[in-house]
Amino acid sequence: MLEHYVLFAAAEGRDADLETALAEFTDAIAGDCAALHEISWGRNINPSGLQRGFGHGCLARLDDDGLSQYWDHPAHQRLLGQLDELCSERFAMDHHSGIATAATNLETPTTRSTR
Questions:
Q1: Which of 17, 48, 57, 62 is most exposed by smallest CB count within 10 Å?
Q2: Alpha-carbon span 49 to 68, nearest angstrom
Q3: Pfam families of this UniProt entry (predicted)?
Q4: How far apart are CA 43 and CA 54, in angstroms?
Q5: Is residue 107 part of a domain?
């Protein structure tokens, strides 16, 4: 599975608009992109990220080869068209998950499943 994280620093006075855009995006893409397993967004509560201005984040869990399907989805393209205006800064990080040792006991956090 591919995990696609994005952190957002809202432009001054645009926090509410960014939250609206993220909510509309996740509502539009959930259940409409076959490669998407789960998607969530929320306010950052981590002090180090907040000190750097990153107040919001989004996580999409995708099929290993599903990034292009997700990227090209009309809801994602709409969001991308809004982000330059809504954010002063943003960055993404992608990684393949599922690597753990037998001694690791990981619990999956509660997220919205799209399937």
A1: 48
A2: 28
A3: Dabb
A4: 9
A5: no
CB 70 within 8 A of CB 25: no
Q: Which two tokens stand for residue 28?
A: 């539009």
Domain extent at residue 18? 2-96
- pLDDT tens-digit readout, 25-79: 999 999 999 999 999 999 999 999 999 999 999 999 999 999 999 999 999 999 9
The separation between CA 15 and the C-alpha centre of its own chain, rounded to angstroms, equals 16
Average pLDDT over residues 82-109: 78
Q: Quick check: 41 and 56 in contact, CB under 8 A?
A: yes
In a domain, 44, yes or no: yes
* Domain assignment of residue 102, yes or no: no
Q: How many structural domains is the chain composed of?
A: 1
- Please report which helix (H) or strand (E) contains residue 56, including its range: strand 56-62
Q: How would you class 79 by CB atoms within 10 Å of its CB: exposed for 0-12, middle for 13-18, buried for 19 or more?
A: buried
Q: Are 29 and 2 in contact (CB under 8 A)?
A: no
